[in-house]
Design a protein that fits this description.
alpha/beta, Glutamyl-tRNA Synthetase, domain 3, Glutamyl-tRNA Synthetase, domain 2, Ribosomal Protein L25, Chain P, 7-stranded mixed beta sheet, 25% helix, binds adenosine-5'-triphosphate, binds magnesium ion
Length: 567
């Protein structure tokens, strides 16, 4: 182990998973049902992508790559009132960051607006769609219930010519928002609500990020989705379980329209994570109401937030691989995600020393005005690997928590009269505790044993505790941000009252941290382990006036315990 360079960011082996979708695609190809698999990832640009989307992205792009096919990125941009260019840009950036490439296959539902419109006219001509003048409330009231069929609209039997005229006038902008809709004429008594004459076009006098003011009627998501798949020649349309009930509707459109291909939809369970809300609506509210600093706030489960927090894309891919793809709904422990992050960072992150809550230590027998360079490993497994030097001197900082005036049982660190090892340096003994007027400890006066350079006692005497430190002469100051879950409960409701569940202390700011100087040049986003503390990365809020670091994850692994059955 010692002779390979463990700091070289070892790419995690990503073996393709085995699951029902991959099995099925394999079987379809083997049976010659398709020459080539074509999938797509179809986000609506009404928010940033989150870790749940990562599951869908890895699945769609993953199977395409494994089977030598291709995956499209398609924006489902059918609702201009909620969609923005900012989201389109962020989604592209995040998919690329995750490690996937759609190449030339970037599409938009809006690319097909003209085709969808023509198909809608076709349905009208065939007597399979009609313009309904009912208000939204009336339509809702006539929709029926689970046990009662819906009631036919009074406008349901309009003649095709009248429908066509009204639809064209809707398109021409003659009517106000909500005045009329175009509905598919299917069955108001269908057990499946999606088949009770669904709305397929609505009037929306709103500019669209891509088509501008070309349209004032827009297709519904359901009218766009399956047909977009068909236009693009998608072979396997993979989506989450909530769309299972929409499949009969998609199939109805495909059966009743002259589409160029016949995609098939397969559903899988969405990712749910403990202590995490993955509803775009709630995430939007968090941003809008300032509960977080933005979509890329490191507390957010968004890909932008996770990236800023220091989570490597490889950890997301590996996490998604480990959770697998199935049809049964489940809830994944967020500790499992952290376990994967830790696993990866443990291999790749450089080690550095940082004191988050500093306590000054003066080594009274160390000559004033002097100092020395000590060798420190960049990685614990790399005895022959990269090293750096850290400057030692008469004044250092240690972690407040590493001292107890009256040591508790099993506390092996510094205490009055006790000796500990300073990592990479010397053994020191605490001789005196200096307090302020309030009785708080403000300084320790210790002695060091010059014979223990490197941390070993030549006489072999036992020293149980090893603590980290930073030299006072060249320490750099920094702010360190520690993140806790945004929600207090393990299964946050995430509904209308999500705010009641918000964790009031999800962000902890440590203002007076002291870091070893090598960290001044830490590249943005590169992971580093602060020894004994966790994994951190420099935040983009760092400026000439001050460094800011984010804690990505702490060192304590609660998942390893769970996995071992010791919960
Ligand atoms: P909404 O429809 O409420 O805006 P959404 O999260 O479903 O939210 P989409 O942009 O429609 O947003 O999602 C794009 C794709 O990502 C869809 O195919 C969807 O099935 C998938 N997806 C969304 N959330 C998850 C999740 N938690 N786990 C797995 N896949 C998801
Ligand atoms: Mg959706």
């Amino acid at each position: 182990m010692a002779d390979k360079d463990p700091t070289a960011a070892e790419a995690v082996e990503i073996e393709p998973g085995r699951d029902f979708i991959r099995d099925m695609i394999g079987a379809d190809l083997a049976a010659g049902r398709h020459q080539r698999v074509v999938t797509r990832f179809p986000p609506e640009p009404n928010g940033y992508l989150h870790i749940g989307h990562a599951k869908s992205i890895c699945l769609n792009f993953g199977v395409a790559a494994e089977f030598g096919g291709r995956c499209h990125l398609r924006f489902d941009d059918t609702n201009p009132t909620k969609e923005e260019q900012e989201y389109i840009d962020a989604i592209k950036r995040d998919v690329q960051w995750l490690g996937f490439d759609w190449g030339e296959h970037l599409y938009h539902a809006s690319d097909y607006f003209a085709q969808l419109y023509a198909w809608a006219e076709g349905l009208i001509g065939a007597g399979r769609a009609y313009v309904d003048d009912q208000s939204q409330e009336e339509m809702r009231a006539n929709r029926g219930t689970l046990t009662e069929p819906g009631r036919n609209s009074a406008f349901r039997d309009r003649a095709p010519a009248e429908n066509l005229d009204l639809f064209r006038r809707m398109r021409a902008g003659e009517f106000a928002n909500g005045a009329r809709v175009l509905r598919a004429k299917i069955d108001m008594a269908a057990g499946n609500f999606n088949l009770r004459d669904p709305v397929i076009y609505r009037i929306l006098h709103a500019a669209h990020p891509r088509t501008g003011s070309d349209w004032c009627i827009y297709p519904s998501y359901d009218f766009a989705h399956g047909q977009s798949d068909a236009i693009e020649g998608i072979t396997h349309s993979l989506c989450t379980l909530e769309f299972a009930d929409h499949r009969p509707l998609y199939d109805w459109f495909l059966d009743n329209l002259p589409v160029p291909s016949r995609p098939r939809q397969y559903e899988f369970a969405r990712l749910n994570l403990t202590s995490t809300v993955l509803s775009k609506r709630v995430l939007t509210e968090l941003v809008r109401h300032g509960h977080v600093s933005g979509w890329d706030d490191p507390r957010m489960p968004t890909l932008a937030g996770l990236r800023r927090r220091g989570v490597p894309a490889a950890a997301l891919r590996e996490f998604v691989r480990r959770i697998g793809v199935a049809r049964a709904d489940n809830l994944v422990d967020v500790a499992m995600f952290e376990h994967v992050i830790r696993d990866l960072l443990n291999k790749s992150a450089l080690r550095r020393m940082a004191v988050l809550r500093p306590l000054k230590v003066v080594l009274t027998n160390y000559p004033a005005g002097q100092g020395e360079e000590l060798e420190a490993l960049d990685h614990p497994e790399g005895k022959d690997g990269p090293k750096r030097s850290v400057r030692f001197g008469r004044e250092i900082f240690i972690e407040r928590d590493d001292f107890m005036e009256v040591p508790a049982k099993k506390f092996y660190r510094l205490a009055p009269g006790r000796e500990v090892r300073l990592r990479y340096a010397y053994l020191i003994t605490c001789r005196e505790v200096v307090k302020d007027k309030a009785g708080d400890v403000v300084e320790l006066r210790c002695t060091y044993d010059p014979a223990t350079r490197g941390g070993n006692a030549p006489d072999g005497r036992k020293v149980q505790g090893t603590i980290h430190w930073v030299g006072a002469a060249d320490a750099i100051a920094a702010e360190v941000r520690i993140y806790h879950p945004l929600f207090t409960s393990a299964e946050p409701a995430g509904g209308e009252n999500f705010a009641a569940d918000l964790n009031p202390v999800s962000l902890e700011i440590l203002n007076h941290c002291r870091l070893e100087p090598a960290l001044a040049n830490a590249p943005m986003g590169d992971p580093v382990q602060f020894e004994r503390q966790g994994y951190f990365c420099r935040d983009l809020d760092s400026s000439a006036d001050g460094l800011v670091f984010n804690r990505t994850v702490g060192l304590r692994d609660t998942w390893a315990k769970v996995a071992a059955g010791g919960r």
